[in-house]
Design a protein that fits this description.
Layout: H1 9-12, H2 29-36, H3 43-57, H4 59-67, H5 84-91, E1 97-101, E2 104-107, H6 108-114, H7 122-128, H8 132-144, H9 160-175, H10 187-207, H11 211-230, H12 234-237, H13 241-279, H14 282-289, H15 293-320, H16 323-349, E3 351-354, E4 362-364, H17 376-409, E5 419-421, H18 431-445, E6 450-457, H19 464-484, E7 492-498, E8 515-522, H20 531-546, E9 559-560, H21 578-600, E10 608-612, E11 615-619, H22 621-634, H23 636-644
Parallel strand pairs: 6-7
Antiparallel strand pairs: 1-2, 3-4, 3-9, 5-8, 6-8, 10-11
Helix pairs in contact: 2-3, 3-4, 5-6, 6-11, 8-9, 10-11, 10-17, 10-20, 11-17, 13-15, 13-16, 14-15, 16-21, 17-20, 18-19, 21-22, 22-23
């Protein structure tokens, strides 16, 4: 198995990188670029200078300096992820097809694309393969994510409600996506957990000759590799996704929630009152029948509207699981905006990375850039990781097959040899005797509580001393063969009987005296669950020795190259720098434009007719929502600042 390159001499030389190159803040950008073009600099020295340029001028400028050209890649649109097609492309380098039942197959890459983004857990996806409704939901997610392939057409067509549910599940998973981030989340841990499960399943598939277990192993591996490949997105490598989530959910949202609700409530009251005012004779009624005059009636009507809105808000909180859950959802939404914008910024700018196998940095771009020419080195690393991880399953399966073959040949207790014979004056094992000893060794391997005493014997020819030694040599020949087969010496006892215990005194039958007898006993202090359990433990030990952990694919995982990337912006509301507020605004606009029309079409925004003492009128929530959406897209950060009552940054 390939070894991880933890002690590469180039990596160790990083400590000397700055000895002969000055890259302090007082050195101008022009001077640094001149230093970078100095052919006398070592690779490590060039990396040090390049890192300072990246910090001061940005990775895009650094790329132009290094390559002598403007990048040829197309800048992806806002809001990027390893898209479904990209996950699928990476997964399908394995060439593996996974049977999900009823003659329907998904490619390894298609399962990777569904995992995590469309189905939150492996159990949910596997359960969906078992029922007609579940398979329709798989198709709904395939279509929602625009995952190519013919598999969708072989599944039941989803209903409109199932399609809407698929979209909702996708959005909900996107809000709670710390599991997809490497540096600031649990992506690597998620892959390692699923990888270990898949390896165990593949080994058992070989051990028990069970094709369904092997299929399950690859299904599990493909699900886990979604998170492995997520770890190659430059926007997932160092963005502190979990810290951002915790800050906005636990700290910021509780602080601003009441102000946010009050602002929205007042806005809705104003909007709805204007609608009522336009459709009724409020003004005339106010001065005719109200002793308080127009202002009194207007106040009464506004109060009624406020009560109605409060009731609806209470109902909304109840449906959300309570006020605390509503606060959480606000925090998750804000965390999604901040981390999403930071994620996309890293993806577009690119990130200088290294891994254990490749200590010389290369630039990685993120989602939407998998096929870009200048992202080819990074894609190759991701593909190698996918292949290496999948190859572990094949090796695990072969280990299981080999162990299963031995298990198949283990003799039953009644068939274990209890004696082997030797030639006249011989202590070497004959081929037949060697085969018998091998069978004993195999039996002992799979029955760990069994011990054996080896009694060496000789015929009466010769003196006692010689025959005692000959019996001992014969017993030790058997012992050596058992030890060579892996039997522990502590389970063996050797004793020579010489000529003292003949089985016959007939000269013609003396060959029966030239023997080693096996006397079996049970050690009650040693657990013995039977041959199958022993085989399982043997195979698991072989997995540790030959497969890992650590696993080969871990050596391909990228991490940010030290000193070669600009610092990430502050993510806490109130300290967000202007440039990053622009990133956030663009991110919000993208989502508003992408999902706005669908949100405006929701049934909850349908007109509500009213018949009251002041006349009939219709409340129309949709125009209110449309105006709010327009304000958001016009000035996202300004809108949020008004809603929160707090500036995003100084």
């Amino acid at each position: 198995m390939a070894q991880r390159a933890k002690n590469n001499p180039v990596a160790r030389d990083n400590i000397a990188a700055e000895e002969n190159v000055v890259v302090s803040d007082t050195v101008s950008w022009a001077q640094m670029t001149a230093q970078l073009s100095d052919g006398r600099l070592s690779t490590i020295q060039r990396q040090t200078v390049a890192g300072q340029i990246g910090k001061t001028a940005g990775n895009r400028v650094l790329q132009r300096v290094l390559t002598g050209r403007t990048a040829t890649r197309a800048v992806p649109t806002m809001v990027q992820r390893w898209g479904s097609a990209e996950h699928m492309a990476l997964g399908d380098v394995t060439g593996i097809q996974i049977d999900i039942g009823d003659g329907v197959q998904l490619s390894f890459g298609q399962v990777m694309a569904l995992a995590g983004d469309e189905f939150g857990t492996l159990e949910e996806l596997m359960a969906a393969t078992k029922t007609a409704d579940g398979r329709a939901m798989i198709r709904a997610h395939l279509e929602q994510a625009e995952i190519p392939g013919t598999a969708a057409s072989m599944l039941p067509a989803p209903t409109p409600a199932q399609k809407e549910k698929a979209t909702g599940e996708y959005i909900a998973l996107a809000m709670e996506n710390t599991t997809h981030f490497a540096g600031g989340g649990t992506a690597v841990e998620n892959w390692l957990q699923k990888h270990a499960e898949a390896i165990e399943l593949a080994m058992q598939a070989g051990l028990y000759r069970d094709q369904s277990l092997l299929n399950q192993a690859y299904f599990t591996e493909a699900f886990g590799q979604h998170f492995l490949t997520d770890s190659f997105s430059s926007g997932h490598i160092r963005v502190p996704r979990e810290d951002i989530r915790n800050y906005y959910v636990d700290t910021f949202a509780p602080r601003i929630f009441d102000h946010l609700i009050e602002e929205l409530r007042d806005r809705l009251i104003d909007e709805i009152f204007d609608q009522v005012d336009e459709q009724t004779t409020v003004n005339e009624w106010a001065y005719v029948i109200s002793p308080l005059g127009g202002l009194g009636l207007r106040g009464y009507i506004r109060g009624e509207i406020r009560d109605d809105i409060n009731a609806r808000l209470d109902e909304a909180f109840t449906q959300a699981g309570g006020r605390a859950e509503a606060v959480k959802y606000v925090g998750l939404g804000l965390a999604g905006v901040v981390s999403g914008a930071m994620h996309d910024m890293e993806n577009r700018q690119g990130l200088w990375v290294i891994n254990d196998f490749n200590p010389v940095p290369w630039q990685a771009y993120g989602d939407g850039s998998l096929a870009a020419i200048d992202n080819r080195p990074h894609r190759q690393q991701a593909e190698e990781a996918v292949r290496a991880s999948a190859a572990d399953l094949q090796l695990a399966y072969e280990i299981g097959l080999e162990e299963g073959q031995e298990l198949y040949n283990v003799p039953e207790p009644d068939w274990v040899p209890d004696i082997v014979y030797f030639g006249f004056d011989k202590d070497a094992l004959s081929p037949q005797a060697a085969d018998a000893v091998d069978m004993v060794a195999l039996y002992l391997k799979y029955h760990p509580s069994t011990r054996v005493a080896l009694h060496g014997h000789a015929d009466p020819i010769g003196d006692d001393i010689y025959n005692d030694d000959l019996g001992s040599r014969r017993a030790h020949s058997v012992t050596a063969r058992l030890l060579a087969n892996g039997v522990d010496a502590s389970r063996l006892e050797v004793e020579s009987m010489g000529e003292k215990q003949p089985v016959t005194t007939s000269y013609n039958d003396y060959h029966r005296n030239r023997r080693v007898e096996f006397v079996y006993s049970t050690d009650a202090t040693v657990p013995d669950d039977g041959p199958e359990q022993v085989a399982l433990e043997n195979a698991r030990q072989a997995l540790l020795n030959q497969v890992g952990p650590p696993y080969v694919a871990e050596g391909y995982l990228p991490r940010a190259a030290a000193g070669m990337n600009a610092e990430l912006p502050d993510y806490q509301w109130g300290a967000i720098p202007a440039s990053f507020r622009t990133e956030m605004a663009d991110w919000i606009k993208h989502y508003a434009n992408s999902y706005g029309d669908k949100a405006l079409a929701a049934e909850a925004l349908n007109d509500v007719p009213k018949d009251t003492a002041i006349g009939e009128f219709t409340i129309s929530p949709r125009p209110v929502a449309r105006r709010l959406l327009g304000e958001i897209t016009a000035d996202p950060i300004g809108f949020l600042e008004n809603m929160f009552g707090r500036s995003a940054g100084s």
